Amino acid sequence: MWRDGVLVAGKDLRIELRSRVVLNQVAPFSVVVLVLFALALGPSRAPIAQAAPGLFWVTLLFATVLAVQRSVAVESTEARDGLRLSGLDPAGIFLGKTAAVAVELAALEVLLGAGVLLFYGVHVRSVATLVAAAVFGTLGLAASGTLYGALAGGLRVRETLLPFLLLPVVAPVLLAGTRAWQAALGQGSTGTDPWMALLVVFAAVYLALGVVLFGPLQEAA
Question: What would you measure as the largest C-alpha separation in the chain, in angstroms?
């Protein structure tokens, strides 16, 4: 399973490095969203700084939808049939595609984090909390996105259906990630433990579900 996962992740990342869709399309889109949020909230830094954690995670959710759609799009019908006939472990395929999406999101998060610091004027109080929330949130987004991408992969309307399937499901990541980042930026009065636990549980549940269900979903697609 792990060997197959490494092979699939390497394949997806090589395709992305050659096409540069995330670099040329998703990353600029994410930066534009951050800038538009800053313009919408006005010139005063106070409301922008207060809204920064939520805006970061909302932008990341939009980027996740685009990254997952790209991950699904690289697998044509023939390619999906080839994966099924290759003898690769379906759980390994799921973990590989999840890892590839997670790497792409992690690169975007570095860019978005720099954008938040630059445009919103926030000050980081706890780097460890900031990074931990981003890591577990990324795993949860990548795992759930890959699973629902497989569910919508065989449908002609997958580009419009995927956001409706995915965005309501990842609402806990938006909530927990925002609260954890508020604490990391010195804006929250509550502890981070419940929110970090929610991010960890969400990631673990969807990783487990993906390992079990990705094979049947792939066959159905």
Answer: 58
